[in-house]
Amino acid sequence: MPHQVMNYIIKYKSYIFPLLGLVILLYILSLLGFNPLALIETGLLAMTPLALAAIGESINERAGIVNIGLEGIFLITALAGVYGAEVALEAAKSPIWRPLVTMLSPGVIGLLFGAFIGAVIGFVFGIMSVYARANQIVAGMGINIFALGLIQYLLM
User: What is d(CA 8, CA 22) in angstroms, rounded to the nearest whole number?
Assistant: First the structure.
């Protein structure tokens, strides 16, 4: 019987040991006064956008394009989403736009506007990389630096 258990542990060690380490870490953090469930929730909330970016990058990789400007696209998309929601809130004051804004809600309008802007930036990056033969690494870093500068400027 112990031989079968050892075979099982050896076979699934890449799953067992990280989970065991996570359980031990959460136990130690709970002893220190932290809430383990809140830590897991925060980690999952922070991980979701990064996981979506990784999925998008894997699609880019299959197409033969390396896009390291995903963080910059995220920043610009978030900014555009907030701006779209603010414009929708202002448009709700007008009797012409009020039915549309009430039907969709400003949050959904901001989400759609942000997604549209992100798609446009990704499309421009793809056109530059494929047809203009721009260096993909340099173009991606350019998007990141531009986004960081734009956000810094607008938050001043």
Answer: 20
Q: What is the pLDDT of residues 26-70, one digit of tens each?
A: 899 899 998 988 888 998 898 888 888 888 888 888 888 888 888
- 92 contacts 118 by C-beta, under 8 angstroms: no
Q: If we measure between CA atoms, which residue out of 76, 70, 59 comes closest to residue 125?
A: 70
**Rounded (10°) angle between helices 136-154 and 70-91:** 40
Q: State the pTM of this model.
A: 0.70
Give the domain ranges of the chain: 1-34, 49-154
Report the phi/psi class of residue 135: left, alpha or beta, with left for phi > 0 and alpha for psi in -120 to 50: beta
